[in-house]
Amino acid sequence: MKTEEFPVSKDAAEALIEVLGSGKNNEGDKRDRAVYVNLSMVRLQMAWVMPKLLYAKGVADKLSAEVYVICWRENELFEKLLANMGMKLLCLEKLLRRDIGGGISAALKTIGFIIADGSGAGLKKLRYKKVSAGKYLYEDIIRTSSLSTIRSARNKTCIKKILHILWMCAALDKFLDKHKPVYAVTDDLAYHEAIILCLLKKHGAKMRNISTRAEEEVFFDNKGEPVRRGGWTHDRIAGQLDDVEDAALQAEELLAANFAGISGRSIDRGAFKGKEILSREELTKQLGLDPAKKNAVIMAHTFTDAVFNYGDLYFRDYYDWLDQTLRMAEDIDTVNWILKPHPTRKAYNEDTDSIEMMFERHKKPHIFLLPDKVSGGSIKELADVLLTIGGNAGAEFACFGIPAIIAGKPYYRGFGYTVEPRDINEYEKTLRGIADISPLSEEQIETARKIYYYKKKGKRYNRRFEDELGAGLQELYTQMQDKMAISYFESNKGTKEYNDKVCSFLTEYFKKNGITENEYYKRGMQRGDELK
Question: Is the overall model pTM greater than 0.85, yes or no?
Answer without folding.
Answer: yes
